Amino acid sequence: MNFTIITHVEHYQGQSNLLAYGPYVREMNIWFKYVDEVTIVAPFSKGQSSNIDLAYEHSKISFHKIPALAFNTPMRILKSAFNLPLIIWKTFKAMKNADHIHLRCPGNMGLIGCFVQICFPNKIKTAKYAGNWDPKSKQPWTYKLQKRILNNTFLTQNMQVLVYGEWENQSKNVKPFFTATYSVYEKEAIEKNNLNLGIEFVFVGSLTAGKNPMYALKLVDILAKKGYKVMLNLFGEGPERVNLEKYIQKNELQDCVFLQGNQNKDVLKKAYKKSHFVILPSRSEGWPKAIAEGMFWGCVPLATNVSCVPYMLNDQKRGIILEMNLKKDVIQIENLLLDQITYKNLSELAAQWSQNYTIEVFENEIEKLVSK
């Protein structure tokens, strides 16, 4: 079987392997276990990869390099428009030779893939929609267009669209799904340190305005000024790092807030295990992986009411929905800090729920999709 991926994820050349964003590669390597050949249509960068990137694991990979698409400046719009015919042709050619077409959405390449796949109604297809599938959410029109095409059974045939959460009035194309990071063999009982001895928060995600790490920092700052012994570790990189550094220096938080940069799975695992809370005040999510990972290790989640978060938190029976009002959210957190029994109960329920979604369960579901 030739398994063909259409993705916007940037790729890099390692010493002997093709590298890309770690969490994405880790998932794709599971799909690769059940296919004979892999074809990848994606942008290629001559820059240096980071320590968050991983190598694909398959003996027969054909990589079709395409120019990256970007429409945020006049020059990039012009360049992307010039490259578009080539990209469409390469996508069409790859799909023509595919036995199974796999789209990674939303994204520029996902949108192109949505249109081109219409030409192949009889081929087996899957799409991983990693964004927010909520029909009522505010999203860019290109995201909404991708969702409409994928959900339309006339335009998109023989397709299973993997989405996060369960939503009403969806077509037979749409399949509620999840993602996983840890194995069933990694499960263990987690004992968190007493909150009176110190309270640890962890933020994992890109340091961008959309992920809103500044809000996490401000919450911890207020708690510190109220006399709580708090610590915040922020994992990730991005344009907000400069603003975070300035805020930390201005408010003298160097002893309790630490910017850890991009780190690998093992480092993050240790951070989750010793943290009391995982916080993600994001404006938009698909399946917030950092929340699911933190919950696996007993972190009580603090997350915004986006995408499938209310489902994950079971209407706040497994965590706290942030109202994005500093005063109100600090009160919510303080109420929990003053009630260790409730905190422990939430921590245990969070772990019990998240530990249902192991790599083994995920792999079993992937095998079903590929074998069809």
How would you describe the overall organization of this protein?
- By secondary structure, the protein is α/β, with parallel strands linked by helices.
- It is built from twelve helices and 16 strands.
- It has helices spanning 22-32, 74-96, 108-116, 141-151, 213-225, 241-250, 265-274, 289-296, 309-312, 326-337, 340-354, 359-371, and strands spanning 2-6, 11-13, 18-21, 37-43, 53-55, 61-66, 100-105, 124-129, 159-164, 174-177, 199-204, 230-235, 257-261, 277-280, 300-304, 320-322.
- The longest helix has 23 residues, at 74-96.
- It is globular and about 65 Å long.
- The model has no long low-confidence stretch (mean pLDDT 94).
List keywords for this structure.
single chain; 372 residues; alpha/beta; 7-stranded parallel β-sheet; 6-stranded parallel β-sheet; 37% helix
